[in-house]
Write a structure and sequence with these properties.
480 residues, alpha/beta, eight-stranded parallel barrel, three-stranded mixed β-sheet, 41% helix, binds ligand GBH
């Protein structure tokens, strides 16, 4: 009852790239070593440990700062083409600024990059995966537009030191997620509750910072270094609850507020924030008594400057919800502006994370929406993964991986979506932000009770290695 071996349906295209990912705060540890200064996640975990479910932190995490060579051996065992990791800004520039460059920090990433290349693995470097130097947060962080200049300065240090060997750059990981740290005091650092304003002001700066890094690369580095630079967006699929205008419009708003807010200024021919976002925030702002929209308007100069600043479309995708409209009253908030109720179908298989259900068809629909509205750009899946409690025989992760990859192949072969690479989140179990070490995303298990942080292979890592080696979905995972 397995379908016949159809190469077209279950094989990856020639040149397709496979990788896996981590981020600095989630794996490195060494929080006070070798000249690193504090970042906003050090501050949050130490000052507000009640916001972390197991009251843990990333002080030691997976100790990848000391164990990077072991990590590279795991990557080699998987057979991946690339490793996506992030640089800790405060490890490289302890003041946040370029007046002090910490050589030990520069050396760490040089050693990691060289070790990867010596093992035939390309580095894919995320410049910012949420760990802002505390010194810069003390100036207000991302809502302060001066940050765009500081980010460009930091980007120059990275291109100068690593660009001879790094050919894939990601400026920002999930801007829609970390800018919410200025909107709400519930979860993410820096935990500034400027509701209705914080996320929009931070978004404005982040778009300008991204564009500055892109233009800097174009103007000073691209000719010699020949790399690619993009951003990693995060979006869940939103399926209209019912096939009615209101639910379709609600899901469209959800997409535009979370993905379009960043992707439209960069990938659409006209640039700027999506129309529905501008209209909704302006409408609510007026009703709330403001004389101007809470959403900053981009100047024509900014629109032109931001437009077209990506060589690929980085997509972090995990799950799907059903959406229908919900009207909020009261104080201005981002949530009120979006105006949606999102619910999973509780019959979908779950995970260790309340928000993560296994809905592979949503992945295919999301890929199609991106191809449709952004003119089929080259997409790199920069994250996709599943959480459990750390079991070695991780059948849930194997099912997630094989079913999501199958739907991705359907999007490529059946629908013509231009997906060129895939990144499994994550290489190793790590510090899962507000959920501490209670939710595990790794292909390899990490023993956080062990001072040596021993890594142990899970069954899913073996399956991923088989997929990479054979460049196809193994027959036993093919559906009828
Ligand atoms: C990614 O975010 C991150 O890039 C990565 O660092 C992280 O480890 C990985 O996902 C797994 O979570 O707790 O119910 O309030 C994915 C987007 C946004 C999903 C925040 C979880 C919190 C939901 N994440 N969200 S809840």
């Amino acid at each position: 009852d397995k379908v016949p071996d159809s190469l077209k349906d279950y094989a990856f295209p020639d040149g397709f790239l496979f990788g896996t990912a981590t981020s600095s705060y989630q794996v490195e540890g060494a929080w006070l070593e070798d000249g690193k200064s504090l970042n906003i996640w050090d501050t949050l975990t130490h000052n507000k440990s009640n916001l972390i479910s197991d009251r843990s932190n990333g002080d030691v995490a997976c100790d990848s700062y000391h164990k990077y060579k072991e990590d590279v051996q795991l990557l080699k065992e998987l057979g991946v083409n690339f490793y996506r990791f992030s640089v800790s800004w405060s490890r490289i520039l302890p003041t946040g600024h370029i007046n002090v460059v910490n050589q030990a920090g520069i050396d760490y990433y040089n050693n990691l990059i060289n070790e990867l290349l010596a093992n035939g693995i390309q580095p894919m470097v995320t410049m910012y995966h949420w760990d802002l130097p505390q010194t810069l947060q003390d100036l207000g962080g991302w809502p302060n537009q001066v940050m765009a200049q500081y980010f460009e300065d930091y980007a120059r240090v990275l291109f100068t030191n690593y660009g001879d060997r790094v050919k894939y750059w990601i400026t920002f990981n999930e801007p829609s997620v970390f800018t919410a740290g200025y909107e709400s005091v519930a979860f993410h650092a820096p935990n500034v509750g400027a509701t209705g304003f914080g996320q929009y002001l931070a978004t404005h700066t982040v778009l300008k910072a991204h564009a500055r890094a892109y233009h800097l690369y174009d103007n000073e580095f691209r000719a010699a270094q020949q790399g690619k630079i993009g951003m990693a967006f995060n979006i869940n699929w939103c399926e209209p609850r019912d096939n009615i205008t209101e639910d379709i419009a609600a899901c469209n708003r959800m997409q535009e507020f979370n993905l379009g807010m960043y992707a439209h200024p960069v990938f659409s021919p006209e640039g700027d924030f999506p129309t529905v976002v501008k209209e909704r925030v302006a409408m609510n702002s007026e009703a709330e008594g403001f004389t101007q929209s809470r959403l900053p308007s981009l100047t024509q100069e900014e629109i032109e400057y931001i437009k077209g600043t990506a060589d690929f479309f980085g997509l972090n995708h995990y799950t799907t919800f059903y959406g229908s409209p919900l009207t909020y009253t009261g104080e201005p908030t981002f949530t009120k502006d979006v105006g949606i109720l999102m619910m999973p179908d509780f019959s979908w298989p779950g995970s260790a994370s309340i928000w993560l259900h296994v809905v592979p068809w949503g992945f295919r629909k999301q890929l199609n929406r991106i191809a449709e509205i952004y003119n089929n750009p080259p997409v790199i899946i920069t994250e996709n993964g599943f959480s459990d409690h750390g079991e070695l025989n991780d059948t849930g992760r194997i099912n997630y991986l094989t079913s999501y990859l199958t739907e991705m192949l359907n999007a490529i072969h059946e629908d013509g979506c231009n997906v060129v690479g895939y990144t499994a989140w994550s290489l190793i179990d790590n510090f899962e932000w507000n959920n501490g070490y209670t939710q595990r995303f790794g292909l390899y298990h990490v023993d956080f009770e062990d001072p040596n942080r021993a890594r142990t292979i899970k069954e899913s890592a073996k399956v991923y290695a088989e997929i990479i080696a054979t460049k196809q979905i193994p027959e036993r995972f093919r559906e009828e």
